Amino acid sequence: xxxxxxxxxxxxxxxxxxxxxxxxxxxxxxxxxxxxxxxxxxxxxxxxxxxxxxxxxxxxxxxxxxxxxxxxxxxxxxxxxxxxxxxxxxxxxxxxxxxx
Length: 100
What we know:
0% strand; elongated
């Protein structure tokens, strides 16, 4: 199963002749070939545009700057300014938790 044999190809060819007619079958095949060629050229053009965009992006990058390490924070004194990142102890004013 899954293989197309000679019988199936003959049946498909007969159906195509019946659907398109003997005289219109070459025109349909030619039109299908043109469509495939246009599709392939569009895909190739999209690939070239993508490669060009990648190459310009790699040449236009900004050189990196050194990042200074953050200054030391005195963690011995808890802050009261409300910045949870710099607090030494976790907050206890959370009302959403279970009641003790």
